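Review form for a predicted model. The reviewer records the input and the model, then writes brief findings.
Reviewer: anonymous (R2)
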Amino acid sequence: MAPVVVARDLVKRYEDLTAVDRISFDINQGEIFGFLGPNGAGKSTAIRMIQCVSPVTSGKLEVLGMDVRERPREIKARLGVAPQDNNLDPDFNVIQNLTSYARYFGIPKAQAARRAEELLEFMQLSEKRDVMIENLSGGMKRRLIVARALINDPDLIILDEPTTGLDPQARHLIWERVRQLKREGRTIILTTHYMDEAEQLCDRLVIMERGKFLVEGEPKRLIADVVGDCVMEVIETDGDEAERYLRSLGQQVERSADRLYVYSKDCRTINQEFRRLHPEIYSVIRPATLEDVFLRLTGRRLKE
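Model under review:
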């Protein structure tokens, strides 16, 4: 089966700024593919080119077997997009936001009404069908935006930070629905700043910085390859002494404001010896996560 998205040497430039710099990737049918990276890394620009709302500067980009330059209207008709911003129509109630949006896709009125009711049930919003948008909570608005993205029964779903600002219950409900969509064979592109979300949901992902891919692969494999199975954290009481000792062992040590991080495939043995020699300095071993991969590759300083 042909990939749903094919990109080769994809470039996007804005005058002197290269926002996307010769990236190549495939997104396969039925997988959840994540784009991660700090602000300004090029994630949103890549997504906008896939959505056919930002023209490609150079390279190849095919979506659903069609060139984005030649058949953008046909591609858009088969996409479902849940944007980061809450751009629901405040003049309509919940059900009207879905049925009115269905008109953009030429869906007959009766079919749109049935589809809207199904999606409200799917996103646990049926009891809010007649409520005006201003009276919804933030979590309800996000769920409605996801429901709206599904109104045209899309072949490719793009979820741009779908759980930003949500409480744990709303967040996990969206996770459950995303997994259900995957079980139905849907292809999903996900952008998120929550590393645990990407680790939980994505089959594969890329981490971008300055328009390029730093790594690409399955979350578990990236954790194993970049960090290892565990991380040693040293809560600094005498950070210089601890850091000198750890570096003397040939370990790569990262420093934050109040602690040291040691990434090693042998961190448990290192920690045992460290605590024997420095019992006054608190240290702990914890499982490695995708956030460790992200911070190790992109650094701990803010990028704005």
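Findings: The domain at 229-287 is CATH 3.30.70.790 (Alpha-Beta Plaits).
Further findings: The chain has two domains: 5-218, 229-287.
Recommendation: see findings above.
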